């Protein structure tokens, strides 16, 4: 078996990770080698059960409360800090995703902040990803309700005028500019979530930017990845 080569600057981090995985019972140490630990036996998570630790003959404190959820290979999953407790289905690495249907009509900027907040509620810490599966729309973080929306509309008209100057010519007049818009306003973004709430600034809102008047119905996908 070929040995992995580790950069000297990464050795400390690798040692710390191996140590933590050994303490959690995911790995077992045999001299200088590490291997996957066998899956815990049926009922090993019951209160008062004795577990073997990283040291020979070591004991672990009994688990209290309900057994941990089983992860890959049948091993228990450790709840992450800030994650909801019993009754919440969020496991390490499990992603939740929903798709919203939004009616934009001729509105350039549609506020999605309330939808994102509702989606993240009770989900603990992690990241929320916002994505629009369209070639003529994007998402952004900006201030709303203070004149920024018409300012953005004027800025887009200056950079991408709605005129018959585009090679992409199907649809209404100047529709080619709608297909260029996502290069300036990206179709996806990520926002940190702390304690089940998007960590947005006081004046920040998550918005859909859509200049395509030929398509009044849009889909927005929200995905949450727990920390």
Give a quick summary of the entry.
With 227 residues, the chain is an alpha+beta fold. The protein contains four helices and ten strands. A hairpin with a 2-residue loop joins strand 1 (27-30) and strand 2.
Envelope shape = elongated
Q: What would you report as the Rg, rounded to the nearest angstrom?
A: 25 Å
Secondary structure tally, helices? 4
Unreliable runs, pLDDT <50, ≥5 residues? 45-91
Strand content: 15-25%
Mean pLDDT value: 78
Assigned CATH class of the largest domain: Mainly Beta
Total number of domains: 2
Main sheet specs: 5 strands, antiparallel
Total strands: the figure is 10
- Say what the CATH topology of the largest domain is: Jelly Rolls
CATH superfamily of the largest domain: YjbQ-like
Provide a descriptive summary of the structure in words.
It contains 4 helices and 10 strands; from the N terminus they run αββββαββααββββ. The chain is an alpha+beta fold and 227 residues long. It folds into 2 domains: 8-74, no CATH class; 96-226, Jelly Rolls (Sandwich), CATH 2.60.120.460. The protein has a 5-stranded antiparallel β-sheet with strand order 3-10-5-7-8, covered by helices on one side. A 3-stranded antiparallel β-sheet has the order 4-9-6. Strands 1-2 form a two-stranded antiparallel sheet.
